[in-house]
Amino acid sequence: MNQSASTAGIGDWDAAVDAAFGAYVREVAEVGAPRLFAVVEEIGDRSDARVVGYGLEYADRAESAAVGGGVRMSSEDAEGARQLFEITGGNRAHLVWVGGPAEVVGEDG
Fold it and tell me: From which domain of life does this come (predicted)?
């Protein structure tokens, strides 16, 4: 028997298993994936704005870092990170979810 003929179907099966497992692995990763957020500082009376930090919100906490480096922090959630940036920066800060539906949260909701 020709070996290539006897193993021809195996490659197709492996590809199907790889595709199915790849889809499963992607699903596992997406279910537990943190949400990316930015903290944007308002400058003046809504005359300008700048991103002061980025973070990841997990199910049980948020981890964020200042854009300029040197400052990393943990908080209960993304809103807590926004509050910390606002307190330390002295200006009003807004929470912006990145990569999802447009949603901006400021101190007044």
Answer: Bacteria
